[in-house]
Protein: (African queen) hypothetical protein
Organism: Danaus chrysippus
Amino acid sequence: MEFFTLPGVKRIDVIFDRYDDISIKFLETKLRGKDQITQNIIISNHSTNIPADCKAFLTNTHNKLKLVRFLCANVPKYAQVKEDCELYICGGFDDPTKCFKLQGSLICEILELQSNHSEADSRMFVHIFHAVRIQSAHIIIISADADVFGLAVYFWKYLENIGCLGLWFDGSHTKKCFLGCHLAAKSLSENICNILPALHDVSGCDTTSRFGSKMQWLNAASEDFSQTALMPLGNLDLNDEQFKRSSLHIFIFKEEIIY
């Protein structure tokens, strides 16, 4: 765990996607990869060779599931966590809703972080809020999923209210490039920030087929359209009629947004 060697790093959370056999997400990822033929690889132990083509390996949902379960089963055995540091890990245990904390030689379940989120890009914010409530600090998100940046921009106003000092995003595989989610949130209008979760859903996440990219939606959506079609989707008290009305607006503007 080399991150623990960095100055000031005392907590690391590792959140994996869930890959349930029966789920909307499984059907969607299977649909996306229907034209790709990949090999199922058996991960028997820590000596298993790394696949020559990691990208092809990860397009296979069964491979990802086996990798995630292998890591969650073995991290508690092999990870060396100091007494004054904490490692939280979740998503790949037999019960994927559970989260465990490793600290020194101890491992324990954290009930506050038990979650039924299927995607790591939303579940990680449960962990972020948990961390900030315990101690005010800067949070760094490391993820290859650029959608996380948009969600982080949305959640910043809530995190700031409970004492978060800064929210940073690093999505680069080749070089460190920290983007300030809190800075982006302050530069955007409140309405734009509020529609980002809905924008994430309608423009493609692991449980939906997209009908338009995020940039196309942002460029095409007027202030009135945002209010009418997307804003209600972020309300906790959204009823069936409001959902149908919002969905209808989205489909009406579908061709205009894409083309």
Summary: Strands lie at 11-15, 86-90, 99-103, 106-109, 138-142, 166-170, 179-180. The mean pLDDT is 81.
